[in-house]
């Protein structure tokens, strides 16, 4: 067998094997969707024709999306900051901070009990 024949066969086999990065990305997306499905229930029913998402995107980053508006919360050492759509980050304080903490805590408890038993 020639070297090029072996190389072509090996490349063909590698192309047929699932990509580990793609599998991980798909699994991550599935988990975010499952978590978001639970997260949207924390704030009551969603009216027909409306959309709501609430989930932890990655460590210290939370996403709230409702009816076309997206709010990104980042938990940092010096506080919680939010970014609405394309605006800059602003520190969350007072009642809004308390609501965020309660929602994040309820979300984590719900997700841990339903998905990550």
Number of strands: 5
Strand neighbour order, sheet with most strands: 1-2-3-4-5
Q: Give the N-to-C terminal Cα separation.
A: 53 Å
Low-confidence parts: none
**Which series of helices and strands comes N to C?**
HHEEEEEH
| Helix run count | 3
DSSP strand (E) fraction? 25-35%
Helix content: 40-55%
Radius of gyration: 21 Å
What's the average pLDDT? 85
- Number of folding domains? 1
Largest pleated sheet: 5 strands, antiparallel
Assign an overall shape.
Answer: globular
Secondary-structure class:
alpha+beta
What's the SSE blueprint?
Blueprint: H1 3-16, H2 20-39, E1 52-58, E2 61-66, E3 69-76, E4 79-84, E5 89-91, H3 94-114
Antiparallel strand pairs: 1-2, 2-3, 3-4, 4-5
Account of the protein in words:
The protein is α+β, with helices and mostly antiparallel strands and about 120 residues long. It has one domain. The chain is built from three helices and five strands. The model has no long low-confidence stretch (mean pLDDT about 85).
Structure described in brief:
This protein has 117 residues and is α+β, with helices and mostly antiparallel strands. Helices cover 47% and strands 26% of the residues.
List its salient traits.
5 strands, alpha+beta, five-stranded antiparallel sheet, 3 helices
